Amino acid sequence: MLIWLVELSEHLKFLNLFRYITFRTGASLFTSALIVFLFGPMIINSLRIRQGKGQPIRADGPQTHFKKAGTPTMGGLMILAGIVGSSLLWADLSNVYVVATLLVTLGFGAIGFYDDYLKVSKQSHKGFSGKARLGIEFVIAGIAVYFMMRTSLASSPAGSTFGSSVAFPFFKDFLINLGIMFVVFGGFVIVGAGNAVNLTDGLDGLAIVPVMIAAASFGVIAYLAGNAVFANYLQINFVPGTGELSVVLGAVIGAGLGFLWFNAPPAAIFMGDTGSLALGGTIGTVAVATKHEIVMAIIGGLFVMETLSVIIQVGYFKMTGKRVFLMAPIHHHFEKKGWTESQVVIRFWIIAVGLAMLGLSTLKLR
What we know:
Structural class: mainly alpha
Radius of gyration: 20 Å
Order of helices and strands: HHHHEEHHHHHHHHH
Distance between the termini: 37 Å
Oligomer: single chain
Strand content: under 5%
Shape: globular
Helix content: 55-70%
């Protein structure tokens, strides 16, 4: 919204600052953090009063989790307030990629909110119907991918299929055109990312820091992919307009920092599905927009690991009646093995940093 101030730069030279993505990204980060810091306590108190018993604790979970009973959930509302509020101020709202990303963020956040509401009101882990939830997520993600694909095709040379193609790291010109099926592929990536972060959100601070790490990594990727000079130098695919997504991701980092202040052990609030689905969907959408869907599997490798642990556990149990892990997702497995919560969280953060560095290294390996 504030980008329109650039039009006044002829009279007030300092307003030229609003032209630069780097400046607006920093301002977006600071603004979103400030929003969460200022309104966080009010939101927490309101949720605590309305929820009563708070988020239900799994009876089969680690014994240390029972002391968290009564902690309110839906902290994702704080995160969404920071991301959306800051993005509306600092991002270019005429940019299709920004609008599509915010659509997924709010849409997935709304689904997560309804899921959290059902769990809290019924004091049960059974929330929104899994099939219905996935169906709605695919519709939202598909709409976002379709418009991003159309925008990319429109900005490409005549006859180019870049907008509907999948790019591969390490190979600049290796593209596979999926045509309209790219909508399905992109939708799968976004839905998968949203639910992967959702599965990771099980310990205080476990999900939010890797999300911020991924957001910072994709903020760099979006900025470089949206800049013709840098994209040409690194030999990555140039996607006009995606640089603006750095501003949105700056808001994600700021909101994450603000939320972590309240979510640090012992957590005063959990983000719930409201936050985890929205954040995962945001990262997934940026990955699709910048043509770095495969790189996301590296940068977000921690989320992939958590998801695979659930798939393996469920699949193996159905086939043999036995379990591979003591408990899934895998962070609970390590808790059952005797790791403290802080050990699991910090060690998983270290893994997330390492994977992010590995993912970013693919930018130069062409």
